[in-house]
């Protein structure tokens, strides 16, 4: 029955509200982007830590300070992911919301790009807390590359969210109001 409903009214999907799913996926993408940054760059590759440009982790105490602030960062990202999951749960309960996979994927990618842009501008450029790759011969180029890749992620997410497998309608049948 549900499949028949979707198939019958697929061309009318444009009237559904995309904003709740976009909001949920952006928030979830921000949190997930932060987790990827923290896990990959901070922990696995160990290219930097949260304060590694200000407090070089060359002593046990300095390493502990950086680890503490990495933990604070991860806690904030956990909150963002939790809020994103709650918003996504609420989207699933609503019938009038567009539940397009393109919106979800695009929002996740755009959210990740937004996180990276904000983190790159604030932590790398304005406050100088750390560089993408502290031990590089030219850390500034890594920072600029990170921002460029982040803008590409944001734009890719926007393109995905704007992708539609249907055309807007001018007439909506009474049976789906």
Structure description:
The two termini are about 20 Å apart. Helix 2 (about 20-45) packs across helix 4 and helix 4 runs antiparallel to helix 5. This protein has about 180 residues and is mostly helical. The chain is built from 5 helices and no strands.
Radius of gyration: 21 Å
Fraction of residues in H or I helices = 55-70%
Beta percentage is: under 5%
Low-confidence stretches: 166-170
Number of beta-strand segments: 0
Quickly count the domains: 1
Spell out the key features of this protein.
5 helices, 177 residues, elongated, mainly alpha, 67% helix
Structure described in brief:
The protein has helices spanning 2-9, 19-44, 60-93, 101-126, 139-162.
List the helices and strands and how they pair.
Elements: H1 2-9, H2 19-44, H3 60-93, H4 101-126, H5 139-162
Helix pairs in contact: 2-3, 2-4, 4-5
Pfam family, one: DUF2243
Keywords: Membrane, Transmembrane, Transmembrane helix
InterPro entries: DUF2243_membrane (IPR018719)
């Amino acid at each position: 029955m549900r499949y028949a409903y979707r198939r019958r009214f697929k061309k009318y999907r444009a009237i559904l509200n995309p904003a709740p799913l976009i909001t949920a996926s952006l928030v979830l993408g921000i949190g997930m982007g932060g987790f990827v940054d923290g896990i990959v760059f901070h922990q696995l590759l160990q290219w930097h830590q949260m304060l590694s440009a200000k407090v070089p982790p060359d002593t046990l105490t300095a390493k502990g300070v950086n680890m503490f602030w990495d933990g604070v960062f991860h806690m904030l990202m956990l909150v963002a992911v939790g809020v994103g999951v709650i918003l996504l749960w609420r989207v699933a309960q609503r019938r009038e919301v567009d539940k397009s996979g393109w919106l979800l994927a695009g929002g996740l990618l755009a959210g990740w790009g937004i996180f990276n842009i904000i983190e790159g501008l604030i932590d790398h450029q304005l406050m100088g807390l750390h560089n993408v790759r502290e031990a590089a011969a030219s850390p500034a180029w890594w920072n600029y590359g990170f921002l460029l890749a982040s803008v590409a992620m944001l734009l890719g997410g926007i393109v995905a969210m704007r992708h539609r497998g249907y055309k807007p309608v001018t007439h909506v049948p009474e049976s789906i109001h």
